[in-house]
Design goal:
Arc Repressor Mutant, subunit A; four-stranded antiparallel sheet; 12 strands; single chain; Rossmann fold; five-stranded parallel sheet; alpha/beta
Length: 235
């Protein structure tokens, strides 16, 4: 996990110097870009392991950059942590809806940012299929719910044979629910497992991910256990 490439995108030199220094001190490689177009060009040349992305950029917004990353095959699963000077719930929800993995509100401490980078990367490395260890043992798992099929070997989700654009966090949530085979899981349990004890922020973010999954899977696949959590419908 050492020497992973972190792409830092912010037009404030003080922020990028501060962030890149602390990431490098923690053992990461840091590459800095000041514009959205520069970030997309950099990511196309060498796929980063994670992107730290400012919301307000001089050319493209962080939302536009994140959406563009999610639309390209090479970068659609790259984790994105957004930086914002506004602690605005609407901004966070929009960011999560287009595929951001986490949010950090300015001003922030270097320890907090490095911790969040590490937490997001650990979740990615610990996902089944990310290595030849435990992931290989689960690779043959195939879960079905109506016309939805989750293929653990390929780490893809299909509907009527067509692959769905599921990001890593959505995949982890759906996988957990699929493995429960119709049993309801509490919201706290889902947060604890999927975020691996490294959850920061408002627990309502889970509801945003569930909303996005329902849009992609279709209504009726993920059911609400009122006052408790969620389940995948049985049968």
């Amino acid at each position: 996990m050492a020497n992973e490439l972190i792409l830092v995108v912010d037009d404030e030199a003080g922020i990028t110097d501060f962030v890149s220094y602390n990431l490098e001190q923690a053992g990461y490689r840091a590459r800095v870009e000041a514009t959205g177009k520069g970030a997309l060009s950099s990511a196309a040349k060498e796929t980063p392991d994670l992107v730290v992305l400012d919301l307000m950029l001089p050319d493209l917004s962080g939302f536009e950059v994140c959406k563009a990353l999610r639309q390209k095959e090479a970068t659609r699963r790259v984790p994105v942590i957004m930086l914002t000077a506004r602690d605005d719930e609407v901004d966070k929800i929009v960011g999560l809806e287009i595929g951001a993995d986490d949010y950090v509100t300015k001003p922030f401490s270097p320890r907090e940012l490095v911790a969040r980078v590490g937490a997001v990367l650990r979740r990615r490395h610990d996902e089944p299929g990310a290595s030849d260890g435990a992931g290989a043992a689960n690779a043959a798992n195939v879960f079905r719910c109506g016309d939805i099929v989750m293929d653990g070997a390929r780490r893809v989700v299909t509907k009527n044979g067509e692959e769905l654009p599921i990001n890593p966090k959505e995949y982890a949530i759906l996988e957990l629910l699929m493995k429960a085979r119709g049993a309801a899981l509490s919201r706290d349990r889902i947060l604890d497992v999927v975020w691996a004890g490294d959850f920061y922020g408002d627990a309502r973010q889970l509801d945003v991910y569930i909303y996005r999954l329902r849009e992609k899977l279709g209504e009726g696949v993920i059911e609400t256990a009122r006052g408790f959590g969620y389940r995948v419908k049985s049968g």
